[in-house]
Amino acid sequence: MYEERIRNADLRNRVISPEEAAAKIRSHMVLGFSGFTSAGYPKAIPQAIASRGEAQDLTVFTGASTGPELDGVLTKAGLMSRRSPFQSNVDSRKAINEGTVEFFDQHLGLMPRFIRDSRHHHLDYAIIECCLVTEDGGVVPTLCGGSTQAMLEQADHVLLELNLAHSAKVYGIHDNYREPGIGCRRGIPIYEVTDRIGTPAIPCDIEKIKGIVITDDFGATPKFTPVDEVSTAIAGHLIDFLKSEIAAGALPEYLYPLQSGVGSVANAVLAGLMDSGFRDLTMYTEVVQDSALELLIAGRMRAASATSLSLSRAGLDRFYSHLDQLKGKIVLRPQDISNHPEIIRRLGVITMNTAIEADIYGNINSTNIMGSRMMNGIGGSGDFARNAQLSIFMTPSTAKGGVISSIVPMVTHVDNISQDVHVLVTEYGAADLRGKSPKERAEIIIETCCHPDFREPLWAYYKRALAESHALHNPVCLTEAFRWHERYLKKGAM
Question: In CATH, which superfamily holds the domain spanning 229-491?
């Protein structure tokens, strides 16, 4: 029964159908949806909006990526015209690259501040998934914090999806805290991963809540590819590198808090930590995925702070079956707090993010394939890499069955500059780039990280750059820097 999940008696009278909720949405509105990496996003209301098909030219903001029941249906219905800050849906991606949806990429840690700055796009509605509404109208999200707090503050109106598939016992796992405003002399008092400084529910003006839709659906959940030989090798090189840092006295045996990006490679690397010998690990990150959950359950990791629990369907079952054990170990925060530079620097976070491609000087492309085709977005990698104690980027050395080298003469789009990249890891090795000049970086990356099929051509390019570049600090052969990419676009192989 949903009544016990709505503890305010007046709000029980505002339960409506998805169709009634969708009827409130008009063309040209700006909508803020909860959700962060396929966790905590509403499903019934966006599907009803798409089914009605009347609300055109919608601007859609979220915390990060959602699922097909939101990004997918609104895109296929032709209702979404603008999107930010991060997406991973195939239909949304196609529309962005065809130019029918305008996409504004954004560092995820800055999204709540952007939403609060209503000069750009003021929210007409916040549409939020929750598992509980408190007596005073406080909203308890499901498994993500994201930008939900900022959306509830700024939106003119609120629609809630009360999802009964998620346990109300989640109440207490969230720590909702508002980032201090510009000019405030008060810092953010987080000194340990598990510090709690906010509230378990997000305050919300009851008068703004225009309807509550009851659902019972986990929706689409992430699917991680099985750990393969390449991801295992990447994990092995990374773990060996961390152990060498401990042996040199540069890191403590328990390491500093870890941050890990999303996706199958990141999930596989965390899985490699299970039998690595590390104990008493912690995370200060955006997303807890299945492998991190298993580290927590197994006791290898003692605590994790994130803004989202992005779990497979099996991972969700594992989470809820161990909820009593995990509740004191996991803190879910708003994304401007999970990604805040002050805290990342204070805690000395070790960041591990994936790249689409890296060039021989250590610049990272995380977003645009062949320079123009948007994949997902920069996510939080920039928030963490710029402020990390140790910034690590990982990528398989090749893509598309070996016809593309992930190590190239020059990346076609730069998301993370070389100064923010301390270590680059592929299945062939880990290149420590700290304290290296551009030429020294090029030599160690080619020798350590490149696939053997592309190593000789990269050396040949680098030697021509040394001979032809107008200066030798960062030697570039301008006439050839993107020739590999051009060759792929014309012939299907680099």
Answer: Glutaconate Coenzyme A-transferase (3.40.1080.10)
